[in-house]
Amino acid sequence: MRMPYSVTHNPPNLQVANLQAFRLACYEFQLCLDGDLELPPFKGASFHGALGLALAKIGTRFRDYFYNPTSPSHWQEHQKPPKPYILIPPLDERTQFHKGDTLSLGIVLYGSAIDYLLIVFTTLEHLGEHMGLEPTRGRFHISQITQLSPDGAIAIYQHQRWLGQPHPLHAPHFFTDPPPVSRVQLNHTTRLRLKAYNDLLRLPRLSACSCTAY
User: Fold this and answer.
1) Rounded to an integer, what distance in angstroms lies between the CA atom of residue 114 and that of residue 24?
2) Which residues of the chain have pLDDT under 50?
3) Which pLDDT does position 170 carry in this prediction?
4) Can you tell me whether residue 13 is helix, strand or coil?
5) How far is residue 15's CA from residue 30's CA, in Å, rounded to a whole number?
6) CA distance linking residue 107 with residue 120, whole number of Å
7) Which of 93, 103, 104, 117 is found 20 to 30 A from 26 (Cα to Cα)?
């Protein structure tokens, strides 16, 4: 699918240098429910909105850092920096949950956001203890945090105790050269939104799309 704007490719040596310097940290938060909870089948929007509201309670500057990052002064007006995190909502398709159930929430921090892990922890703690998740305002507590590493998942928080220091990793720890492919098919279980110059592109509804890789 051709986008209606041009993309400037960096030289290969610059791409490699950027990849070597790119830092990220992948965490999985186990959220234990303290009461019954109702959520929609696709839970990303619920967690995205609730996390933003809770961040604003902790401090608006933290909310702006994660949800409305400032563009560098040399960027053009239409250029918007990406949010410094990736939220991976629970993939459980159930909508009804009960006290004692556990939800797995993945959060990937990259760049300078890695230094804000404690802010994310405090925000989720505040969300679970004082705000709850809509629409039933279900409360929860953080029972465990694990960090993904090249050697597997490592517990860094459990039973209300920190077990060790988180360690950011560089992208080459995670990515290796993929096998050669000529065609990739993506099946979308939720809506797909594409943007150009920070404006939504108007495209036909897609349930599956294929693209050719070169």
Assistant:
1) 7
2) 1-14, 212-214
3) 81
4) helix
5) 35
6) 9
7) 93
Which CATH number applies to 20-179: 3.40.1170.60, 3.65.10.10, 2.30.40.10, 3.30.70.1890? 3.30.70.1890
Q: Are 129 and 33 in contact, with CB atoms under 8 Å apart?
A: no
The backbone region for 77, taken as left when phi is positive above 0, alpha when psi lies in -120 to 50, beta otherwise, is alpha
The confidence score (pLDDT) of residue 13 equals: 47
What is the predicted pLDDT for the residue at 119? 95
Residue 69, both tokens: 């990052």
Give tens-digit pLDDT for 132-142: 998 888 999 99
123 φ, ψ to 5°?
-65, -45
The reported pLDDT for the residue numbered 17 is 54
> DSSP string of 157-204?
EETTEE-S----EEGGGT--PPPP-SEEEEE-SS----EETTEE----
* Structure confidence at residue 207 (pLDDT): 52
pTM: 0.79
Q: CB of 34 within 8 A of CB of 142?
A: no
